[in-house]
Amino acid sequence: MAAAQQLDQARPRARPQTERRMKRRELWLALAFIVPGIALAVLFKLVPLIRGFHLSLLETQGFEEPSFAGLENYRTMLDDPVFIGSFRNAAVAFATLPIWVLLPLVLAVLIFQRSPGWKFFRATFFLPYMIAPIVVGIMFRQILAPDGPLNALLRAIGLAPLAIAWLNGPNSALLSLTAVALWSFFGLGVLTYLSGLATISEDIIEAARLDGAGFWSLLLRIVMPLLKPVIGYWTVLCTSGILIWMFPLIYALTKGGPGNATTLPEYLVFTTTFQFMNRGLGAAIGMALFVFVAIVSAFVVRRMYAEGKAS
Amino acid sequence: MSQSQTLRRAGKRTGSAAAPGSRGIVRLVVTAALAMIAVVALYPLLFTILNSFKTRTGFAKNPLGLTSELTFDNYIETFNRMAVPRLFLNSVIATAGGLVLSTFAALLLAYAVTKLRFPGSNLVFLFIIAMLVIPSQVIIYPLYETILDLGFGSTYQGLILAYAAFGLPISTYLLAAYFRAIPDQLIEAARLDGAGEMRILFSIMLPIATPAIAALSILNFVWMWNDLLLPLVIMGGSDKKTLMVGVALLSGQYDVSIPLVSAGLVVALLPVMIVYLLFQRQILSGAVAGAVR
Amino acid sequence: MNSSSSRKGGIGRHLAATAFSFLGAAALVAPLAPAAHAADVTTIKVLNWEPGGAEYWKQLVAAFEKANPDIKVELETVPFDRYPEVQGPYIATKSGPDVMENNAGLELYDRRSAYAELPADVLEAGKELITYSGGCLNFDTSKSCYGLPFGYQGNVMYYNKKVLAEAGLDPANPPKTWDEMDAACAKIKSVGKTCLALGLSGIFPAYWDFPEVARNYLTEDDMRAMLTGDMPWTDPKMVNILKGLASITQKGWANASAPSITMLPDGADLFQSGNAAFAGTIISDAVNWAAFDKALGAENVGAMRWPTLVADAPLAGSFSGIESSVFGVSSWSDKKDAAFRFVKFMAGPENAELLTKVAGGISLYKNVDPSALPNSPALSQILEIIKKPTLHAGVILSGQEADALARGWQEVTLGQLSIEDWTARMQKALEQSPSKRKK
C-alpha cells in the first residue's frame, strides 16, 4: 500500500518522454500477451466461420467439385419446412429457460439455508452435470422407454394415464429431450448460485430481515436483485447449453424424431452436412443458426462486456 | 462465508416467525422435495449400474428390478472391445492439454486487457467473449477442414488446440472479472519494486486468482472430458480417439445388448466420478464459489 | 525505472516467441510420429466399421500381415452409424485412409470420385465370388469397379418358435402372406407378446424393411430406374410400397415404441429377449442367426422370407441380397499397390474361411467348405433362401430418401402424416439427392 502511494506521487513528476516509452513497451507487451488467445480464436473459430460462410455460397453435389451458387442454398433452406420446424423446436426449448434459471435458484437458497441434509443434496445435485451428455442420452433412452422405470413408477402410483410413450409424441419427445438436458445441467446452476449467495452482503439481508421478509419475498426482492450478475452468467451458460449442448442428447435419444419433432438447428446442420453430404446447404443452415445464436446471446455478451471492460 | 450467516439466520427466522407447529411441517416438506430431486438425480445412474451387472436374459426377464443372476461378463466384454487404458490415456492427454493451453492463453489475455493499458484492449476483450456465440455445431465442418489444413488431423495437437479455442471465451471472461477486482495499485507497487510482468502475473495475480482458475478448470475439464463431437470428428476412429468416442463406438456396434452398453457407460463415467469423489470438497465449496461474482 | 522497463521488453519478446512456438511446436511434432516405422514396411490405413466384430478383424489383419510381411495394417474403426461423418471430411479434403469401406450400391457410387478404379488383376479375385456387381457402376461388372466385397448380406425375417407355439401357432409353418401374418399377430398379441420387433429410427427401415415390401411391387428394371432417379415416388408402385410399410404399424403388428427406437440395439433386443415373435433383420455381420441362436437357443430360432403382399409378384419369392460392404482404395493414396493387395485379400479364400468361422458370416466366396459352417436350423433355412437372389432395393435409396422414409414412417405410424404427404416428401428427397436429381 505504501508503494502505491509512492507511485501516485511519482506519476505526475515523470517526464513526458519516459511516459511515452513506457506506453510503447506496454503496447508491445500487451500485444505479446494477447497473441496466443487471439490466434486460437481466429484460427479455430473465426476462420472456420468465414470458411463456413464461403461454403454456404457453394453448390456441393455430393463429392464432386463445388461450384459457386450464390444464395441458392439459402433459398433451398427457406423453402424447407424441416428447417423452419427446427427453429420452431428451438423456440419451444427456449420457452423452458425460466425453469432452467429458477429451479436451481430455489434449490440453491434452500441448500444455503442449511436445510437438513444440505451437504448430501449439494453433492447429489451436482452429480448429473459430471456425466457426459452422450452417456446421459443413452441412459435415458432406457429410462423413458414405454416399459421403462419412469412409466413403471407412474403406473405404480396410480398415474397410469401419464405413462405415455415419452419419445413417441412430437411434443412429449421435445419436452422429454429438454427435461433430460435440464437434468444434466441443473446441478451446475445450483452450485453457481450457491457461490453467488456466499458473497451477499450482511447489511442488506439484515435490513430485509428487519422488514420481516418471508422466503419468497427474500428470494424475489433481495436474493434475485443481488444475484443479478450470477443469474446473468448462469443464463449465458443455459442459453449456450440449449443451443449447443443438445446435440449428443438428440443423437442418443431421438435422432431428431419422431418425424422431425426433435430436430434442432444444430442437429440439422449435422445431418445435412455429414449424412446427406450437402456441405453447402449444411453451411447455410449453420449460418442461419449462427445469426440466431448471435441475436439471442448478443445481449448476454454485451452485458459480460459491460461488466468486464475497463471503465 | 461469515457475512452470509445472516441470510441463513434469516431463513431460519422466517420459519420461526410462522406458527410454531408449521415450522416443522415446512421443514419436512422442503426436505421431502429436496430428497425427491435427489432421487431423480441419482436413479438413472443406479439403474445403469444395476443393468450393467445383468445377463442378457436376466435383463430381458426383469429390466427394472434386481435379478438373482448377476454377472461381471459385461465388463470383461467392454474391456475386450474397447482398449480402455489407451482410450483413457488419450482422454487425459487431450483434456489436460486443452485445459492448460486455454487457461494459459486466457491468463495472458485477461491480464493484458485488465492490467495493461493499450488502445483497443476493450475491443480485444469483446472479440474474445464474442467468440462464445459461435457454437461448434455451426462450424464443425470448416473447423475440421482447417485442422486438416494445418496437418493436425487425427493428432492430439488438433484436438488440444480446438479444446483450447472453445474453452477460451468463458475462461477469459472469468479471469478478467477476477483480475478487475484486484486493485491496480498492487501491480503498480510490484512494478516499482522491479518485478517484471511475467512475475507479476505468475507470482501475484495467479495465486490470487486460484479460485477462479480452479473454477474454470472444473468447467473446462467436465466439458472437454465429456465432449463427443470434436474428438469424433478430429480423431475419427484413430487409436488416439477419446474414451467418449470409444463408448459411442461401443453403443454403435452391431451386436450389443443393453447390459453391455450399460457396462460401457459405467466404464466411461467412472473416471469422472472418481475425480468428483476425490475433489468433491474443492468442487463443491471453494472453486466455483470464488469464481462467480 | 529505465532498467526495469527494458527487462519488461525482454520478457515481452520472449513471450511472443513462446506464444508462437505454442502453435508452431505442435506443427513440428506432428510429422515426426509416423516416421517411426522401418523403411521397408509399408503401413496402410484402413477405414472400416468392423463388420463381423472385433475378434474377426483382429484375426483378419494378423492373417494378412502374415501373408504380406512387407505391409502393416493400421485400422481406423468407426461405428457404422457414425461412419459418414468421419469419411465425409476425408473425401472432401482428399486425405486420410488408403483403404475405405462403403456399402455396395448408391453409397459407393456417390463416393466413387474418392476411389481408384480397380485394376484388372485385382478384379480377377472378384470372379471367384458369387457376385461383385455392387462394387461396380450401376451394378454392371463391365463398367468401372471401385471395390470388392467379401461377405453376403441381405434381409430375412427371424421368428421365435417358442413364442409361436405359445400363441397356438405352428412353428413349422410360419405365416407366408400378409393376411396370415395379420392373423398370427392377433394370436401373438393375445398372449401378451409383441408380434414384430420394430425400430423406425435411423437407417434401418430403409435397409431392412423397405426392400422386403418393395419386392412385391417392383421389378429389377424398376430398381435400376430408382438408382438413376428415373422412378418417381409418385408412381403407383412406389406409393403401394409406402402403403405396405404403413400397414405394418397401422395393423398394430409392431411394438408401440417403434417410432422412437432404433432397430439396433433396442429393436433387436426386444426379439432377443424373447418378448417378440418376429424380427426383420439381416443374415450377416450382427443380429443374425448366430446372435439369435446364442440368445434364444438354436432350436428356437427360425428364418423365413418376409410374408408376401402380392404373392404372384415376380420378385415376391426372391431374396434381397447384396454384398455386405465393399473395400476399395482411396484415389489419393500413395500406397496403392499395398492397398490393392489388401482389397484382394479381403475377397480371397483365406478371409472367406475366417468370416465363416470367426464372424459367423456368409462369405461370397464360391468354394467355402460346407463343413466349416455351424449347425443351425436358421442358417440352413437362410442358405435355402439366398439361392434365389434379386437386387436389394434398400441400397439404391439415397441418404435423403432413407432419412425421409424413416421419419415419414414414424409420423404415419403416429397418425400425423398421410400417405400422400409422405409420398410428396419422398419425391422431394429424391429431387434433393445429389446423384439422382435431374439438373
TrEMBL record, chain B:
<keyword id="KW-1003">Cell membrane</keyword>
<keyword id="KW-0813">Transport</keyword>
<dbReference type="InterPro" id="IPR000515">
    <property type="entry name" value="MetI-like"/>
</dbReference>
<dbReference type="InterPro" id="IPR035906">
    <property type="entry name" value="MetI-like_sf"/>
</dbReference>
<feature type="transmembrane region" description="Helical">
    <location>
        <begin position="256"/>
        <end position="279"/>
    </location>
</feature>
<keyword id="KW-0472">Membrane</keyword>
<feature type="transmembrane region" description="Helical">
    <location>
        <begin position="87"/>
        <end position="111"/>
    </location>
</feature>
<comment type="function">
    <text>Part of the ABC transporter complex UgpBAEC involved in sn-glycerol-3-phosphate (G3P) import. Probably responsible for the translocation of the substrate across the membrane.</text>
</comment>
<keyword id="KW-1133">Transmembrane helix</keyword>
<comment type="subunit">
    <text>The complex is composed of two ATP-binding proteins (UgpC), two transmembrane proteins (UgpA and UgpE) and a solute-binding protein (UgpB).</text>
</comment>
<comment type="similarity">
    <text>Belongs to the binding-protein-dependent transport system permease family.</text>
</comment>
<feature type="transmembrane region" description="Helical">
    <location>
        <begin position="123"/>
        <end position="144"/>
    </location>
</feature>
<feature type="transmembrane region" description="Helical">
    <location>
        <begin position="200"/>
        <end position="225"/>
    </location>
</feature>
<feature type="transmembrane region" description="Helical">
    <location>
        <begin position="25"/>
        <end position="46"/>
    </location>
</feature>
<dbReference type="GO" id="GO:0055085">
    <property type="term" value="P:transmembrane transport"/>
</dbReference>
<feature type="transmembrane region" description="Helical">
    <location>
        <begin position="156"/>
        <end position="179"/>
    </location>
</feature>
<dbReference type="GO" id="GO:0005886">
    <property type="term" value="C:plasma membrane"/>
</dbReference>
<protein>
    <recommendedName>
        <fullName>sn-glycerol-3-phosphate transport system permease protein UgpE</fullName>
    </recommendedName>
</protein>
<dbReference type="Pfam" id="PF00528">
    <property type="entry name" value="BPD_transp_1"/>
</dbReference>
<keyword id="KW-0997">Cell inner membrane</keyword>
<feature type="domain" description="ABC transmembrane type-1">
    <location>
        <begin position="88"/>
        <end position="279"/>
    </location>
</feature>
<keyword id="KW-0812">Transmembrane</keyword>
UniProtKB/TrEMBL annotation, chain C:
<feature type="signal peptide">
    <location>
        <begin position="1"/>
        <end position="38"/>
    </location>
</feature>
<keyword id="KW-0813">Transport</keyword>
<keyword id="KW-0574">Periplasm</keyword>
<keyword id="KW-0762">Sugar transport</keyword>
<dbReference type="GO" id="GO:0042597">
    <property type="term" value="C:periplasmic space"/>
</dbReference>
<comment type="similarity">
    <text>Belongs to the bacterial solute-binding protein 1 family.</text>
</comment>
<dbReference type="Pfam" id="PF01547">
    <property type="entry name" value="SBP_bac_1"/>
</dbReference>
<dbReference type="InterPro" id="IPR050490">
    <property type="entry name" value="Bact_solute-bd_prot1"/>
</dbReference>
<protein>
    <submittedName>
        <fullName>Multiple sugar transport system substrate-binding protein</fullName>
    </submittedName>
</protein>
<keyword id="KW-0732">Signal</keyword>
<dbReference type="InterPro" id="IPR006059">
    <property type="entry name" value="SBP"/>
</dbReference>
